[in-house]
Design brief:
The protein is α/β, with parallel strands linked by helices. It contains 15 helices and 11 strands. The strands form 2 sheets. It has a 9-stranded parallel beta sheet. A two-stranded antiparallel sheet has the order 1-2. Helix 4 links the parallel strand 6 and strand 7. Helices cover 46% and strands 13% of the residues.
Length: 336
């Protein structure tokens, strides 16, 4: 495989350039509009929405409709849809485009039991004929690029990522993301980058590598091992959206930046919390802020009693005051 070029030109999804070659992965309950906007500002070329069930979106479900709100979100806006019926998926794709989606991503990688039990997500990898029907229906339904996210197969005995990728290319899919694990492997086994490399060798559409990428050096290593055109990062960026800036710099051939200083981190978290309060309303925003603060604390020297006390607060003002108290009391540690 040729050596990785850190000055490689931007990859494109349809007409949209991705100059940094770094993408935020869709994560249920995480990649809502406030978090996507934050990650885009820190260097992610694309931030894919948390998945939207085709059935719920077409039925006017309130949660699904909120996920279709892209106000203030920079282009290109990418929405991931989930389902197993070609007609419903095509209709859902049209609905998303009507609400501002500029890229449609199809989920065939989710390993969650409740999703797979409905023959959706990664369960679809077991039915290659149905995969083709869904992809063809969605591509024909919309005039925007359609992408696909998969795992390497249902289980280690049925790794069919290469076959699925060829089906996707023939159906007109604009790019494919491969999470380097089978559905059976969940998130516990090391990512298998050789399969992603095989996919890259088999198709001419852009291939995005996903799995076990938590640092700039890992991003470089994964691109070198797979020949992929870009990397997608999910869990590693939750609690440190500034990771994308470091990834972008490293893949651009520059010295990667470290974490922001303490005052900048405080500003990032504050912006995130305010975004949650504004998007969901104070009551729900306060509840959702608790899980995000927990992830930030994994990367900060938070004292043991801080998070339980933060989680006990029931108002936005009290949560923001707790954030300030953390940084004011532990400034030297946080600034180190």
């Amino acid at each position: 495989m040729p050596a990785l070029s850190l000055t490689k030109s931007a990859m494109h999804i349809g007409p949209y350039p991705l100059p940094h070659r770094v993408i935020l992965a869709p994560m249920a309950g995480v990649t809502d509009r406030p978090f996507r906007i934050l990650c885009r500002r820190y260097g992610a070329d694309l931030a894919v929405s948390e998945m939207i069930s085709a059935r719920l979106a077409l039925g006017g479900d309130r949660k699904a409709l909120r996920r279709m709100d892209h106000q203030g979100e920079p282009a290109p806006r990418a929405v991931q849809i989930l389902g197993n019926d070609p007609t419903a998926m095509a209709e859902a794709a049209r609905l998303q485009v009507d609400h501002g989606a500029e890229i449609i991503d199809i989920n065939m990688g989710c390993p969650a039991k409740k999703v797979c039990n409905k023959a959706a997500g990664s369960a679809l990898l077991r039915d290659e004929l149905l995969v083709a029907r869904i992809l063809e229906a969605v591509v024909k339904a919309v005039a925007v690029p359609v992408t696909l996210k998969i795992r390497t197969g249902w289980d280690p005995s049925r790794r069919n990522a290469v076959t699925i990728a060829r089906i996707a290319e023939n159906a007109g899919i604009s790019a494919i993301t491969v999470h380097g694990r089978t559905r059976a492997c969940g998130f516990s086994e090391p990512a298998e980058f050789h399969t992603i490399a095989s996919v890259k060798s088999a198709v001419s559409i852009p291939v995005i590598a996903n799995g076990d990428i938590a640092s700039p050096d890992q991003a470089v290593a994964v691109l070198a091992a797979t020949g992929a055109d870009a990397v997608m990062v999910g869990r590693a960026a939750w609690g440190r959206p500034w990771l994308f800036r470091a990834l972008a710099r490293r893949l651009g051939g520059e010295v990667p930046s470290g974490a922001p200083d303490a005052e900048a981190i405080r500003a990032v978290i504050r912006e995130h919390l305010l975004g949650l309060y504004g998007f969901y309303g104070e009551s729900q925003g306060v509840r959702l802020a608790r899980k995000h603060m927990g992830r930030y604390c994994e990367h900060l020297p938070c004292p043991p009693g801080f998070l339980p006390l933060f989680n006990a607060q029931t108002s936005a003002l009290r949560q923001l005051a707790m954030l300030d108290s953390l940084f004011n009391a532990h400034w030297e540690e946080l600034a180190a």
